[in-house]
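Subject: for your reference before the review

Hello V.,

The reviewers asked for a structural picture of the protein, and I figured it would be easier to keep everything in one thread rather than splitting it across files. Below is the amino acid sequence we used in the manuscript, unchanged from the supplementary table.
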Amino acid sequence: MSVNTIIIFAPIRYILKKYCKYKTCSVLTFFLIYNFSPFFVALRQILALSIILWGVIWIIEDRKYKWTVFVSLSVIAWFMHTTAAIVAALFLFAYFIPIRLRIISIAAISVSAIIGVILGKFNVLDTFGFIASYDLNVIERISLYLENQELKDSLSLNIVLRTSVIALLVFCFLDDKQINHWFSKIYLLGVILFNLFCSVPMVNRMIMANTLFVIFVFPWLLENKYSPQRNRLLKILLLVVILYFTRSYILTNTYYDLKSEQRMNPYYFFFEDYHNHPSILYFK
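And here is what came back from the structure prediction:
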């Protein structure tokens, strides 16, 4: 497990060390804002993501044979988890699409959130069920997610609004160069996809590679220089965000349902007896 953790977080640590000035803020963002639960349960998918992140590093630093390395690492990641093909494609799409105006990113976030809520009212899940019926490798296990009624019920407008509010805060205060940065565009694409398909169960699992980049771009807000008025406004908004997500984090880890089908219960320590854990007792 220790080796697995080192492999997973090595590229993330590298990016934080080199591209984020306020690393503590990145760590807080990971736990408070980002949905980090897949790091405990989707180990193959996370390992595949960590491999692709090294390819991202190769490109962003313009190293020799960068595209060959990125493609090669993406293929290796695909053997680890088939969703790597989608992740690599989305990352490349974000790389080649420029964002020259701030209003474009803000409009994309707002419009996608509205469209996503509307699509949810028209049973867009039926379309995904049709696609999943073809049993394609690239959408591994998606049909299982679509059939999970509890996962459907857990999605709400509140979750969509939280994701969109954070993204709007980021893109309202980043400077033009940062908005057009590859990291920002990857994150933006993830937010848009999440908004559009917010009614799809486990959508977080599908685009978690993109939304992971919030831990890199959110701390950039603290690096920029603003006018006194904008600086004061940003501090107030950041305080509200931190307080809200801290409260949410505490409640999530305090009032959890031991009989939930998602079985996202607190882990036991290695010296504790796991045989009587609720996730085992109720789902034998």
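For the response letter, the relevant points are probably these. Residues 132-136, 142-155 have pLDDT under 50 and may be disordered. The longest helix spans residues 228-252.

Happy to draft the paragraph if you're swamped.

O.
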